Every structure is written in structure tokens, then in C-alpha cells.
Amino acid sequence: MTKKWFRIGLLGIFILSLALRFWGLERFNTLVFDEVYFAKFGNNYLTHTPFFNAHPPLSQYMIGIGIWLGSHIPFWHDTVNGLTGSMRSPWTYRWFNALTGSFIPLVVAAIAYQLSYRRSFALLAGLFTACDGLFLVESRYALSNIYIVIFGLLGHWFFLLALDKQNRRRSFWLVFAGIAFGASVGTKWNGLWFLSGAYLIWIVAWVIQGTHSFANAKLSFKSPSLEEEAGGRSQDSEAVASPRASAEFRSQEVGISTYSPPFIPSPSSESPLQNLTQLNIFQMLFYLGIIPAFIYSIIWIPHLQLDKTYGFIAVHQQILKFHLHLGGNSSDVHPYCAAWYKWPLMIRPMAYYYQTAESITEPLPVMGPPLPAGAGQVIYDVHAMGNPFLWWFGVAAMLFLVGMLVSQAVMPWVKEKRFLVPATLSIDTWIGLYLVINYAANLAPWVKVTRCVFIYHYMCAVVFVFLAIAWFVDQCLRSYYQQLRALGVTITFIILAAFIFWMPIYLGLPLSPDGYKLRMWFNSWI
Asked: Please, which residues bridge with residue 227 across strands?
């Protein structure tokens, strides 16, 4: 794929994302789901109204900026309401989120490209992200989760740019990575897991290098008899030996194997992840420790100037107290509570808006008492659920990556009857480690959370699922085997078709009762 077509593809993905997020943005002239908090909070900063915020304030700043800018644009004010505390058009408190969310597929594509330098992988990652329903819904309303994700992903992208061996401005990109990670935490505390993923992959890289160093030290203390035996073997095979073969022989002597399963390609190109050990602990602590903490701290200044009820420490104590008293994770607390293990297979999505009307010609309904049973012939539903097949295929791809990593450790043991550690990692092994580690970093902390949580808390983890299925499909499409190429095309077609099929409940388009039931495949989805 040429650079020109790559850029055209990225532009097409951005235009698709932009169009879907802005189309009918004013459709519901009310506050949808948590807009009752975040849209009001954003407006409160403009009206200088003190309030308690149960999350760090950055996303509400962004929404407030959007309201201020939108109020000065002389169009898209056909409908207004006073639900935020001021007379505002729904467009004013939603458009900035829609614009921000439109960039997320591009950032995901940028991360995919930086991981592999493969344009096909990057385009697939961006396309699949653009075809997810949960990200589309969250982008169309004044909610906060879009900002956690985009700042966390930007942090990872800048981190990968800093690792590029050809990039001499490493400190420059590390500073921006620290700022982005701090901004993610400054939106919600769970943005911290993006930062923890960067630390974990860095630690794994050092562990791998330490294992190799230990093996090399062991090699240097071989007995003379082993050296003579190794020399004899080398001379006997001198006619056919290569530097790579010699390296493999030495690796076998010290219990290290360069074995790579036949179904995993080992391209000659490199990944920035191979340069992780070029960063020392002092760089990590400064750029990805002190800088994020500093950014997080200054984010609070405007809010604390507005509401002086609590200081910096006290407000954090109040936030923690608020979340600890939200109740257990069951439907008795909230009908859409969904524990972490229900997220990957999308067992319990949630309705952000649901109303019925007698006919499609009636004015679009606002929140109010529902019509009597059987009277509603038109259903308006905004469902916060992902693209089912994108999520299901993505989980399968993530499990495949886990299996790939395990096999690279286990198969040499099976073949050589001893535990062996790969001496070198292929680019796809590094990608697998990166995706699995970051997925786990963003999902595992929720295992111990006992408060009521919802499917949107999975957004920080599921982006790595999108990258996993994009990697798998890219491997299929680049395969020599026709069956694998057909599999890659089939998976892509199913994901696109599913997105179109469920689009009405992402955009809140009018549906007949039968059309609504057709899309609610399981009772737990309703």
C-alpha cells in the first residue's frame, strides 16, 4: 500500500467518524443519561456556580469550553432548553465531544502503525474502532469517557514515538506522553491504568533483557570441555554454518531457544518496543511519573478556585468516600450494573435513552412518562453497546495472542524437553505482549471493585481488543493461504455489516417494535 492510499484511507475513516457523530446531534432536546451531571457541570464553570464533582474535572472543563464556543457560533440553535442551568442548544454541549471522539480511530491507527510500521494493520485498526457502537454513542453526548480514552491513547502513541530509534527528540515525546497520561487521570482515576500499561511493558522488556544477560553470563563461564566440544561442532559444520546458526547453537547450550511457531511470521522490520530498555528508571519516573502527577495537580486548580469547600487533599477524600458508598454491583442498586466479567462478551449493555411515540410524524419525545403498553408504535432507543461481532471476534483474537505467547514458551520445552526462553522476540511477539499487557492493565483492576460498575468502564480496555482483531485480520489478509485471506475478508465484512445493522440504536433512529426486538438478541440487552 502506497503512502498516498494510506493517507486517503485515514481521511476516509475520519470523515466517516465525523459524519456519524455530528449527524442529528440535536435529535433529543434533553439531557441524555449522565448529561444530567456532566453537561450541567460544564455549564457551572461558565456561570461560576460551585458544585461537588465525583471525578477529576478535566472532562467538564472540555464540555464547558465546547458550550462557550458553541454559544458563539451563529447557527445550530434551532432547539434550546434550560436543563443545564442556562438556555442552551443541545448542540452546544455535545459538539466538542463529537469532534474529540472522531479523532479516536485515527489515534488507534497511529498506535497500530507505530507498533509495526504496517499500513494495512493501521487502517484496519482505525476502521474497526470507527465501527464500534459504544464509542459512537459516548461521542455523541456530553459524557466524560471519550476524554479518558483519547488522552490515554495519545500517551501511548507519544510513548511509542519516543521509543523510535530514529527519533532523536526522545525527551520531547516523553514530555508529551507524560502530559497526556496526566490528562487521562485528570478525567477519571481509571485513566491511571493506561499509564500502568506503559510501565508494565517496560518492566517486561527489562526482565527479558535480564534473562538474556544471565544466560550470556552463564555462557562465559562454560567449562573448557564444553568449549572444545562447541568448537568441534562449529568446525564440522563450517561449510553450512551462518552467524544466525551459530547464535542458535550458543543459545541452546545456555537454555535459550530462538524457536518460533510456524504460524507466527517473523518479519525483518523492527518495532519501537524493542527499544524499551533504552529507557532507564530515572527517565520513567520523571517523564511518566513526576510530569503526569504535576499535570494532574494543576488540572484541579480552576475547580478548587471555584468551589473552596474542600482543599486538594479533602476533595480526594470526599471523592473516594462517594465511590465507596455507591453500593454493591447488582441490579438491586442499578438495573444496568454489570460486573467486569460481563463486559468482554457484552452480556449487559445499557440504554442511555428510551422513549416511544405514536407515530414518526410526532415531535421527537423528551424524557417523560412512557405511553401505555401497546400505544407506542415508534421506539427511540440510544443503546450504549458495542458492535457485538467486533467485540466477540476481538476477544477471540486476544485469546489467540495469549496462546501465541504461551506457545512460544511451551513449544520449545515440548520439543527439547527443557524450559527455554526465546533469545530474540519477533515484531509480532512484541505486539502480542503490548496488547495483552495493556488489555490486562485496563481490565484486571476492576476485578476487585465492589461498587456498581457499567459497561462503559470497559472502554479503556476494549480499544486493545480492536487492535488485536485488526492484527489478526491483517495477518490473515497477508497470508499465502487463500483460506486465511478469505477468513480475513469474511471477518471484516461481518464487522461492517453488524455496525450497519445495529446503527439505529446507536444513533437513536426511530424503530418499529419489531425492528427494536430484532436487534435485542438477548433479554440481558434490554
From this structure: none
Which among 91, 63, 69, 71 has a CA at the least distance from the CA of 79?
A: 91
Cell of 448: 476487585
Q: Which helix (H) or strand (E) holds 353?
A: strand 350-357
**H or E segment and range at residue 422:** strand 421-422
Pair 397, 471: CB distance under 8 Å: yes
Secondary structure element (H or E) that encloses residue 384, with its range: strand 378-384
Q: What is the pLDDT of residue 410?
A: 77
Check residue 343 and report its DSSP letter: T
pTM: 0.88
pLDDT tens readout for residues 256-295: 333 344 344 444 457 889 899 999 999 999 999 999 999 9
SS3 at position 328: strand
Mapped onto helix, strand or coil, the DSSP state of residue 159 is helix
The predicted-structure confidence for 191-216, as pLDDT tens digits, reads as follows 999 999 999 999 999 988 887 666 55
CB 66 within 8 A of CB 97: yes
Is residue 310 classed as helix, strand or coil in its secondary structure?
coil
Confidence (pLDDT) at 408: 82
Q: Which of 28, 51, 21 is CA-nearest to residue 137?
A: 21
Q: If we measure between CA atoms, which residue out of 454, 442, 190, 141 comes closest to residue 326?
A: 454
User: What does DSSP assign to residue 451?
Assistant: B
Q: What's the rounded Cα separation, in Å, for the pair 313 and 183? A: 19
The CA distance from 127 to 437, in Å, is: 23
Nearest to 296 by CA among 460, 440, 438, 151: 151
- Tell me which H or E stretch contains 285: helix 281-285
Q: Could you give the C-alpha distances from 321 to 1, 32, 227, 334, 451, in angstroms and in order?
A: 53, 26, 65, 19, 12
Give the Cα separation of 249 and 256 in Å (integer). Answer: 9
CA atoms within 13 A on the CB side of 91: 17
Residue numbers in the chain where pLDDT is lower than 50: 219, 223-268
The phi-psi region of residue 33 (left if phi > 0; otherwise alpha if psi is between -120 and 50; otherwise beta) is left
